[in-house]
């Protein structure tokens, strides 16, 4: 019996060893098998899961996660994601993410210090295909059409199907309202029904505390950053800066400059047919990066949704001129992208991070706001981030001096000054301890409506949410008076 068991173990080992990654186009049945293979090779640091809903044609949207605590968020460890194959006929990202999964696992097993540090200090999620149905159609029809297979099986472009939060933030700007984050609750109507793939990804985005993300496309070679939508409605050529423009440029430039030639001035633009270079964009000449709307404006994209609905910063990667490169080109494309893929994941560690506490525990949904005091005139960055399930926050920032304030209704805000250095392996830790303004829990007039005895013996989180509700309703009353 023991012998049989060890024989079984041996054969399993052999299977694992023989499962070397092959560069080819993996179909929708092979995709989860590749992820399972990686999981079998690296069971301690991976988990394979599917999003809450499958595609229209019922194909699950599989994700592989890398962390030392698969399935669990840990404070001080930022969460990052890559999403591939959003347009079904743009397939390079899909294969690169399968290759990246193998690579991260292999390097971890080889005790590669760089990759081990990355995995031990972050939580990484890879969704190789958001649009498996479009991939099937594109593949069945030869994979060489510019549009066939782009959309999902309801003929909907998934990268136009997210709630248009840009419209809301631009309206707030016009009204002088200083509110530019977590805007999903401000949506009053949707331009179109949400597709199952969009819903699945939205639930994922809203439930995992992502800090950094990249969405993968094809058809050009450029790293594109928010906003994708122009303020005036201009269809092309209107730079649409977000409050984090400096940070987004830095994120996009990280990918572009670590890529083989995304940032190369010498390369030709993707759609140039003759010597007339000026007729089309040549992103190499601008460092391989572009603001979204400065290229062309779009509504309902995933990138801006991440930034405006959550704490995540997402950019869009156009990975190559060809949307569906031949299988023979994939290994070379991996070499051209490998360093950039890893360098970008490390960007989840720029800026500052920390935990917001009071004297009895951490505080969820505390607001972290930042003023850039690097130059002679202090410049508020009008996009706050919030603390998560363990009172932890992550604030991506470029090098400079900042005044950082943590606040929460019912507490005195606390500000601290910090210098983000030029070379950072990990984000600077900046924790906050807040003092309550009053002990409202002792106040009969506020708590008269609620049963007594809440103060003792109840879990802290329950008290916290009640506290928040009361604080919010008081604020509301204040607002309606003026
Ligand atoms: C997984 O963890 C166990 C227990 O710590 C260890 O014995 C095993 O070698 C690890 N396996 C891999 C593949 O790292
Ligand atoms: C939906 O999927 C079916 C089955 O694969 C296919 O025949 C049909 O063309 C697809 N429709 C669209 C609009 O993609
Ligand atoms: C803060 O300001 C400095 C100087 O203008 C700039 O270099 C830096 O990128 C800014 N940081 C952010 C996050 O905007
Ligand atoms: Zn695309």
Summary?
This protein has 482 residues and is α/β, with parallel strands linked by helices. The protein has helices at 2-18, 30-41, 92-109, 113-121, 132-140, 165-175, 196-207, 245-258, 292-295, 302-309, 330-346, 444-447, 460-481, and strands spanning 46-50, 62-66, 79-83, 123-127, 210-217, 220-225, 289-291, 313-320, 352-358, 361-362, 367-372, 379-386, 392-395, 400-407, 414-420, 428-429, 432-433.
Describe this structure in words.
It is globular and about 65 Å long. The longest helix is centred in the C-terminal third of the chain and has 22 residues, at 460-481. The protein contains 13 helices and 17 strands. With 482 residues, it is α/β, with parallel strands linked by helices. The chain starts with a helix and ends with a helix. The strands form 3 sheets. It has an 8-stranded mixed sheet, with helices on both faces. Strands 9, 10, 13, 16 and 17 form a 5-stranded mixed sheet that branches. A 4-stranded antiparallel sheet has the order 12-11-14-15, with no helix packed on it. Residues 1-5, 7-18 and 442-482 have low confidence and may be disordered. The protein has helices at residues 2-18, 30-41, 92-109, 113-121, 132-140, 165-175, 196-207, 245-258, 292-295, 302-309, 330-346, 444-447, 460-481, and strands at 46-50, 62-66, 79-83, 123-127, 210-217, 220-225, 289-291, 313-320, 352-358, 361-362, 367-372, 379-386, 392-395, 400-407, 414-420, 428-429, 432-433. The protein folds into 3 domains: 25-349, 3-Layer(aba) Sandwich (Aminopeptidase), CATH 3.40.630; 352-433, Sandwich (Immunoglobulin-like); 440-481, no CATH class. Helix 8 packs antiparallel against helix 11 (330-346). The chain is 33% helix and 19% strand. Bound molecules: 2-acetamido-2-deoxy-beta-D-glucopyranose (NAG) (3 copies) and zinc ion. Zinc ion is lined by residues 87, 90, 217.
